[in-house]
Amino acid sequence: MFVYDGYQVEKVNAQDDTMPTSPLGHDAIVILGGPMSVYDDLPYLQKEQELIRNAMKNDTPVLGICLGSQLIAQAAGGRVYKGKKKEIGWYYVYLTPASSNDIFRGFTDKAIRIFQWHGDTYDLPANAKILAYSDLYPQAFRIGSAVGIQFHFEVNEPLIQTWIKEYGAELIAEKIKPESILPTPKELEDLAVRCRHIYNNFSRVLQK
């Protein structure tokens, strides 16, 4: 447990730590990414989906990033599967009109260049509201109290460098040169601004 920006934050490693099944006692839940797939049928992924469903029933805010968004999609009745093409590197994502009063409130550009690293995508349930999409896949959505974001707004250059080292075999398989996905100073600057917008918009929900 640590304190950040006035919030008490409990960090849980889903693979190793005891997973809460109830959102009670928590103001919000944030689920991050990972190299595994939702359909890998791993026990801890099932527990994460149980927590998501319980949080949504309780109207507790949930934010899922990359794998986290895929877990939300499946927990809510969607289908996660391997996409026809991996999105690794910097891609344009297009914001929908529905996003302007949601997690992307305050974004002035409707086409944003953002960092991606995923091979899976999803078909969303009928009650999902699409907030962003790329040329290939849905990229962000809301279902009730849960928001899923497929792309990575939270990365910085050291983290991207780490992923290049850890998942270099994936880049080789996709014929992607590591230097081609390294960020420019402008990309990093824009990403930091957008990350702050998303954080502020999610925090605003907690303060109501």
Specify the structural class: alpha+beta
CATH class group: Alpha Beta
First and last CA, distance: 23 Å
Order of helices and strands: EEEHEHEEEEEHHH
Number of strands: 9
The CATH superfamily is identified as Class I glutamine amidotransferase (GATase) domain
CATH architecture: 3-Layer(aba) Sandwich
**Could you tell me the strand content as a percent range?**
25-35%
| Tally of separate domains | 1
Could you describe the 3D structure shown?
This protein is α+β, with helices and mostly antiparallel strands and 208 residues long. It is built from 5 helices and 9 strands, in the order βββαβαβββββααα. The protein has helices spanning 43-57, 67-75, 157-166, 168-173, 185-206, and strands at residues 2-4, 7-9, 29-31, 62-65, 79-95, 111-123, 129-133, 138-143, 146-149. The strands form 2 sheets. A 7-stranded mixed β-sheet has the order 3-4-9-8-7-5-6. A hairpin with a 2-residue loop joins β1 and β2 (7-9). The longest helix is centred in the C-terminal third of the chain and has 22 residues, at 185-206. The radius of gyration is 16 Å and the shape is globular. 32% of the residues are buried. The model has no long low-confidence stretch (mean pLDDT 94).
Key features of this structure:
208 residues, alpha+beta, Rossmann fold, seven-stranded mixed sheet, 5 helices
Task: Give the arrangement of secondary structure elements.
Blueprint: E1 2-4, E2 7-9, E3 29-31, H1 43-57, E4 62-65, H2 67-75, E5 79-95, E6 111-123, E7 129-133, E8 138-143, E9 146-149, H3 157-166, H4 168-173, H5 185-206
Parallel strand pairs: 3-4, 4-9
Antiparallel strand pairs: 1-2, 5-6, 5-7, 7-8, 8-9
Helix pairs in contact: 1-2
